[in-house]
Amino acid sequence: MRGPGRIARGLLADPDRPVGFRFDGRRMSGLEGDTLASALLANGQRLVARSFKYHRPRGIVTAGPEEPCALVDVIGANGREPNRLATTLLLHEGLVAESQNRWPSLGCDVLSLNNLIARFLPAGFYYKTFMAPGWAWERLYEPLIRRAAGLGRLEPLVGDRAAPAETVHDHTDVLVVGAGTAGLAAAHVLGTSGLKVILTEQDVALGGGSLLDARWSAWREGQCARLAGLATVRCLPRTTVLGAYGHGVFGALETLSPPEAARFDGLRERLRIIRARRVVFATGALERLIAFPGNDRPGVMLAGAAHQYLRRYGVAVGRRPVFFLNSDEAYEAVLALSGAGLECAVIDVRESSLAAERVRALGAEVQLGALVVGAYGREGVRTVRVVDVNGRARRDLEADCLLISGGYSPLTTLASQLGARLTWQEAIAAFTPDLAPAIGRVAGAARGVAGLAAAARDGEHAACAIATQLGRAVSAADLGGDLPLDSHATPIAAVWEVRGRGKAFVDLQNDVTAADVRLSFREGYEHVEHMKRFTTHGMATDQGRIGGLVGSAVLAQARGVPVCEVGQVRPRPFAQPVPFAALAGGEVREHFRPKRRLPLHEWHEAAGATFVPTGLWLRPLVYSRRSGWEAVLSEARAVRRSVGITDVSTLGKIDVQGPDAARFLDFIYANSFSTLAVGRARYGIMLREDGMLLDDGTTSRLAPEHFLVTTTTANATATLEHLEFHLQAVWPRLDVLLTDVGDHWAQFAVAGPRSREVVAAVVAGLDLSNEAFPFMAASVASIAGVAGRVFRISFSGELAYELAVPAGQALAAWSAVLEAGKPLGIAPYGLDALNTLRIEKGHVTGAELNGNTSADDLGMQRMLKKHGDFIGRALSQRSGLTAPERLQLVGVRPRARAQRLRNGLQLVAPEARTTTLGYVTSSTPAVESDGWVGLALVAGGRQRLGQRLIGTSPVHDETIEIEIVSPHMLDPENLRVRA
Amino acid sequence: MSAPESGIRLASCAADIVEIAALHGRAPELENIAGARGLELPVLGRVARATDQLALCVRPARWLLLAPPAHSGATAALWQAACARVGAAIDLSSGLAAWHLGGPQVRDVLARACRLDLDPQVFPPGSAAATVMAQVAVILAVLPSGLLLLTPTSTARHLREWLASTARPFGLTPRADVTVAVLSGDETT
After folding, report:
1. ipTM of this complex
2. Cβ A372 vs Cβ A291: under 8 Å
3. What CATH code would you report for A290-405?
4. In this predicted model, what pLDDT tens digit does every residue of A501-514 receive, in sequence order?
5. Cβ–Cβ of A741/B122 closer than 8 Å?
6. Is the pLDDT assigned to residue A480 strictly greater than 60?
7. A658 chain-B contacts, CB cut-off 8 A
8. Reduced to 3 states, what is the DSSP secondary structure of residue A587?
C-alpha cells in the first residue's frame, strides 16, 4: 500500500511496483498504473490547484478527461508543459508535477484575495470597469488581468525540444467510439459479420462502466478475448476521438503505451485520421455536478469518480463520505464505498428510491427528500449543511468529502458535430442525439439507455442495423448472451441548483457561477450561446463538460422556460485539448516541407556552393562559402569577359503537343505563337484574367504541333495549373496534350562572348554559326553524346546558349561543357551572379513580375497582339493599367559611385520628400564598372529618364541621390546576344 | 538464403518511363498500337504487366509505360514514332523516380502519409492511383512482386528521407536496384 488513502487493491494499480514522483517539490510515492490524481489522493493531497479567476482552492473532481480543476504543469526533459490533466496523466518514475496559478505557494496564494473582492468581479466586469482611458486597456489593464487570471503558462516548446509525433491514416468499415458494454458488444457483432472495425477507447482499459462492476468481469474479459481473436477488429485503447468531420472522417489522438513509445523513439502521441463508412457512438454518459454554495471545495467530487478511484486504484477519497444525489445509478458508488468499510451518509433529493432501500440494508444512513445547501471547510470539506426539500430541518454533517451526482448526460459532442438533432428526455433529464442512419448509430448510455446489460444489447442492435445496411448477414447467435442483470431503478428527479449564500459554480475551470448565468440573462444575453460568451461558461479546456447542462438549466430557470427550450451550447472539435505537436505530426523540422533538389545538387555541393531556398528549390547562390560580393562579381565577370555556365534546371518546362497547340498558346500568351517557325524560340508574356502579368519565358517550336513552354522558377506550378485549367475548363474542345517535363530536363545556360566555342565543342550535328543558328534558334542535338536540345536564348545579355539534357545524364553534359571551357577559364555561376547579369541587362524576374504590374508597366505593351483573343486581353485594356502615372520600370544609379543601392529603397522627389514615387525592386553592384545599378518601379518612370530623385530607407537611416536611367543598362542595341 | 524479415524493403528500379497520351477520341487507336507492341493498356486506376514492360493508368487517356532502360531517349522515340497523329509520347525517364517497395509492414509505413486505403482487399494487385504523400506527388501501383512507387525526381530525396525516418521503428532494408522484369514478374521479392 502506498499512501494513507490506499485501502484496497485496485484493478489497475500494481501494489508490487512502487513509483516515486514529486508534486510541488514534495516527494511522494504511488503505484504503477496510478494516474497522478489517484496517487495524490492516495497520499492524502486534497488541495491540488488554485482556480482561474478567484484563486479558490481546488481539489480533484473527476477521474477522467472531463476534469475541470486538477490541471498541473509537468516538468520533463522537454521543458515545462502546462495544463496536463492529473486525472489522465499516468504516473511514472521521476514524474515532476507542479500546481498552477498560485504565488508563492498552493497553500498560501496572495491572489486568493480576489475571492474576497469577488462581488466586484462578476462575469464581464472588466468590460464595464476598465473603459477609460482608452489607451490603458492594452498597456495596463489587460496585462494586469492576464497576470492575475489564467492557468498554466505555455513555454515555447519548439524546435528540437518538442516531443515527436506522427500522423496515421486508418480506413475501416465501421468506427466504434467507446468500449463500454455497448461498444464492446457492437464491435463484436460487426467484426464477426466480416466488417472491418476500429474500436477506440479513451481509457487505458476496455470496458467503460463494466470495469466498476465485478459481476461483469467475466463477460468483459471474454468479450475482449473474442475481439482480440477477430482479425477484422482493431482495438485502440488510450485513443480519444477528437472530432467528427463529415464524409466519414474522424480525428483521434492516441497516447502511446510506454512500450510502444519506446519502440517509436519516444513518440508520445499519434494523430489518427480515421475514414469509416459508418460510425457507432457508444461514448457513454457523463455524471454532472449540482450547483450549490461551496460546490468547488477540495473534497467535493463526483460520486462516480470516488467509485472509480476505489475500484481502479484501491484509493478511498475520504474516510467519512457524504453523498448528495438524485438517481439510483449513483448508488453504485455508495454500495462500493460502504462495501469497502467506509461510513457513508446519503442525501437524496427524492422521496423514495429502490436503491436507497438496498443501501440502508447494508447499514448506510440515507436521508430522502433532502438537499445539501452548502459545503464548508477552509482548505477542504469539513461540514456539509443539509435541509429538507422545503428548506427546513437544517443540520450539519461532519464529512471529509462530499460526493455529488446530478444525473448523467449522454456525451453528444461527436454526434452533434455530424448534425445530430438533440431531443430532451425527461426520463434521464438530459438530451440524446438522433444521428442520421446513413452516418451511423448512437448506442448505449450515449442515447440514454440505462444499465450495462441494456447498453450491451443496444450496442448489438445498432451493430446489426449497420451490418445489414452494409450488406452483411448477421447470425442470431451474435445476439443474446448471459449478461448480468440490471437492477430496477427509481427514476431520477432533476436537481440543478440549490440556492443559498455563497458561490455555486456551474463551470469550475472558468470560475463561472450560477449567479453569473443569471446576470447574463439580466444583461440581455438570453440565448445559451450568448450566455456562453458573456460568462465564458463552457469555454475552458474541459469545455464545461460536467456542468454544461447545469448552466443551461440555470438559464432556463431565469428565463422561466424548460431546459429543452434553452438547449446546450454547440460543441466543436476538438473534444479535448490537443498538443500542437500532435497536429503537426511528422511534418516538422527537416520534413516540414519538401526540398526540391537540382539534378546536379551533389556536384554543386562539392563545388562549394552556398545554397539558397527559392520556393521549394535549393539553388546555388554563389560558389563560395564566404559572404560579400567579390565571389559573385568574379563569377559574373567570367561571363562578361569569356564564358560561364549556370544551372537553370529550376525553370518550369511544359510540353505542349497536338493539332491545336499553336491556337492554345495564342490564347494563353499575350503575344502570338502560331506565327513562330519550327526551330525557333520566342519570348512570351502571359496575363492573368484581370490583365496583370502572370509569367514570362521563352517558348520553342520543336515541330509544327509540338512546343516547349518554359516558365519562371517561381511561377512554374502556378503556370502549369493556369494552362491545365484553361485547357480542361475553358477550351476543352482544343485538342492539346500538356505534360509537365520540368523534372525530366536538366538545363544549363552557357553564356559569354566565347560560349559558342565551348558549345560547339560538346554539341554534335549542329551548325552553330550565326546564319545557321541565329539568336532565338532552337534545335534537338546530341550534347556530349546525350540526346538533348539547344536553344540560343540569353538572360545574361551575352551571347548564350541553353543546353537541355535528361536530368539523369546531366552530369555527363555539364562535365563536358566544363572540360571544353577549361582553356577559356569557364566558371560556374550561381543565382547572385545570374541576377547581377540580368539586372544590368534590364530583364525582369519575380521582383518585377510581382502580381501588381501590367505589361505596360514593364514596357511590354507593344508585345500584346493587336488581333485575336487571349487571356487577360479585355481587362488589360483598362485605362487604369496604361495610365501614365503608373509605376513603370526604369533603371536607377546612385549619383555618387561609392554609394550602394538597396532593394526596397523608396524614391521621392527632392522637393516633396513625404510622397513616395516608387521603389527599387532589384539592385546589384555593376559587373565591369564601379558603383551600383538597379531596377525600380517609378510613377511615370519612362518620362523621368535623366531625372534625379532621392532614394531613402528610413529603417537604415539612409538617403542617397539617384539618377533615373533606361532599364537597359547594358548593350541596349542587343548586339551581344546576336554576335 | 533468407534475409532477416524487416518491416519494409526499398529498391530503386532502373527503367525508361514514357507517358503516352491520346488525342481526342484516339485512345482506342493508341490501345491498338500498344497491343501490337505486346502491351495491353489498362483502364483507369489499373496497372497491366507484360514481359519486361508495365503500363499504368492514373489519368484519363494517359498511360505511363515502364520499360528496361535503352539508349538515351530511344524508348520514347520509338513510341513517339508509333503514336504520331494519334497521341504523344513524352519521355519522363529522368522526371520520375521508380521505387519498388516490399516487406510485411510496407502498408503500415505508407499509412503514415498516404490517405488512400492500401488494404489488399480494397487496393488489390493490379490497382494504381495517384496521390500525395509527405506533401509530394506520388503514383502507387500494386504488383504481385510488391508496390511500385513513382515520384518526381526533384523531390525524390525528400520523400526517401521521410521514408527512411518514418520506417525506422519498423526496420528499413535498402535493396539493390531491380529491373523492370523483376517488377513485372509473378514472384514476390
Report:
1. 0.96
2. no
3. 3.50.50.60
4. 999 999 999 999 99
5. no
6. no
7. 23, 88
8. coil
